[in-house]
Amino acid sequence: MAGLRKHRRSGSAHTDGPFQIRHARPTDAPAIAALERRCFSDPWSAASFREALASTWSFGLVAENKPEGEVAGYFIGRDAAGMGEVLNLAVAPEWRRQGVARALLDAGIAALAARGADEIFLEVRESNVQAQALYTSAGFRVVGQRAAYYRSPREDALVLRRDLGEEKR
Length: 169
Hints:
- There is one protein chain.
- The chain is globular.
- The chain contains five helices and eight strands; from the N terminus they run E-E-H-H-E-E-E-H-E-H-E-E-H.
- The two termini are about 20 Å apart.
- Helices cover about 30% and strands about 35% of the residues.
């Protein structure tokens, strides 16, 4: 898949380094769920990840820490009728600020575009300013808000959108 490359910790995209982006497999679900529990207060279950990774409507990517083969981060996306959605993106705390999230997001956007998405949507906690900065730097813009979208703790979500239609022309 285009966009799946090896990366340095510095975020340099074209050289060999300590993590590699690859397609996630249903067998990755337990490791992804373990990372999810470390990152989020209302985590998806391993069964939810397994279902998403086995489905034709969704896909996953993992940033694998080399040489240990541990999951440093993951991206879950889906597409339907020209619309893409970032369902989930997380990076292990010890790998944050190392370019992992950006590499996963860029690869996920490329995958959604290759699958025919003309636009991509996502939700992000209103308080998660670091994630908002990542998404806006990747071309996403706030287009709405969902009241009390998150359960634990209860919080509104911002809805962000990126138009890929212009880029594909």
